[in-house]
Design a protein that fits this description.
246 residues, Jelly Rolls, Arc Repressor Mutant, subunit A, 2 domains, 6-stranded antiparallel sheet, 3-stranded antiparallel sheet
């Protein structure tokens, strides 16, 4: 008679299979496109992979060793912490994206924190290996510069909005961005999460959302914001200028 408690065998990847999977992950990153098999094998060898459960802060401003991160699965949030302890979200990193490249300029992750929003699989390279890679493959260095330029442009746009747009206008722009990003008129965020994205207080966001609702541009449900008037929201996003983002 078969033992009902007989264990079901657990199938684990062999070292070769794990290496091939890692190589596949790395080959999907735009940073390494057009590199040959030998170059990709070297990159595979010098990168380490780690799994971060949701809520894990795997980089903070005092970190020095790890320099370049490549997100393979999951989602990562980058944020600052103000002196008052308020979180200011810089943005989110999606799969197949490299980040942390600003460390090459001595700026670290913009002195930011990096936190896994959901369970994430991350490839990591240290400074010495990145510098050797750039020396051997200048094209990778050029792509890193392009990535830095894109990040700085995004930060400049956020700063311009904070300085010269009132909160309802910034909120309208954020909702339009999230609508396009999610491909849906329904945006699942709490008031607190929206406040973190804008770098303002929750109460300020609640008031701004209420105003947009009264203007007929959105409707609000529990943990959801529904965009109901895209043209009106676009007009509002380019509306009032202000000397203060708060």
């Amino acid at each position: 008679m078969e033992n009902p408690r007989k264990r079901v065998p657990v199938f684990r990847r062999t070292e070769k299979e794990a290496a091939q999977l890692k190589l596949h992950y790395l080959s999907t990153v735009d940073l390494f496109r057009d590199l040959g098999p030998e170059d990709m094998e070297e990159i595979r060898r010098i990168t380490t992979m780690k799994t971060c459960p949701a809520g894990t802060i795997f980089y903070s401003p005092d970190e020095q060793g790890e320099i370049l991160f490549i997100l393979k699965k999951g989602r990562v949030q980058l944020y600052w912490m103000s002196e008052e302890g308020k979180r200011v979200v810089l943005g989110y990193v999606e799969p197949h994206t490299a980040f942390g490249e600003m460390a090459l300029t001595g700026q670290g992750l913009y002195d930011a924190f990096a936190e896994a929003v959901e369970e994430s699989l991350i490839c990591v390279m240290n400074r010495r290996d990145v510098e050797k890679l750039i020396t051997a493959k200048p094209l990778v260095g050029i792509r890193l510069l392009d990535l830095m330029g894109k990040r700085l442009k995004e930060m400049e746009e956020r700063l311009e909005q904070s300085l010269f747009r009132d909160v309802p206008s910034r909120l309208a722009a954020l909702l339009l961005h999230l609508r396009a990003e999610m491909g849906s008129d329904t945006i699942e965020l709490t008031h607190e999460q929206v406040a973190e994205r804008l770098g303002v207080y929750r109460e300020t966001v609640t008031t701004a959302l209420s105003n947009l609702r009264k203007e007929g541009l959105i409707s609000i449900a529990r943990r959801q914001i529904h965009v109901t008037n895209v043209p009106g929201l676009e007009k509002r996003a380019h509306g009032h200028r202000s000397s203060s983002g708060h």
